[in-house]
Amino acid sequence: MRHVLAIAALAVGISIAAAPAQASSTKGPTLRSLQAQITTLRKQVKTLKKQVTSAQNAAYASLTYGACSTAVTADTFQDTYTGLDGYFSAHTLPGYFGLQAVVNDYGACQALQISRAHNQSPPSTSGLRALLDLFKPAPSSARAGHLFDPFLAVTG
Fold this sequence. Notes:
By secondary structure, this protein is an all-alpha fold. It has four helices and no strands. The N and C termini lie far apart (93 Å).
C-alpha cells in the first residue's frame, strides 16, 4: 500500500510541476523586434563588406610590393654579379656568374611607379630606395590616390 501511495504522490507532484509549463504559452518575436534585428544585421553586413574590401586591398598592395621588392633586389644582385665578372675578366680571370636574366615583376613595379634599372655599372640601390620611399611621409597632394595611402601609418 505504501508503494501505491508513493507512486500516486509522485504522479501528483509531476503533474503540478508540469502544469505551469503547459499553461504558459511561449510568444515568438514580434514584427517590430524582427525589423529591428534586420536593420542591425544590415548595418553589420555593410561594415563587414567594407572590412573585407579593405583587407583584400591590403593583401593586393602587399603582394604587389613584395613582387616589386623581389625583382628590384634581384636586379641589384645581378648587377653586382655582372660587375664582378667584369672585374674578373679585366684581370684575366674566368667569369664566374655568367649572363644574368632579368627577373619578371609582372607589372608590379609599374603599378607602384618604381623604375627598375637593370645592368647598372656600378650597381645601385636606387630601386630599393624608391621602394622604401613609398613609406616616407609626403604631402597628400604629392601621392594622391597612391596604392598604399589607406594602409600607411608611418609618421614623420
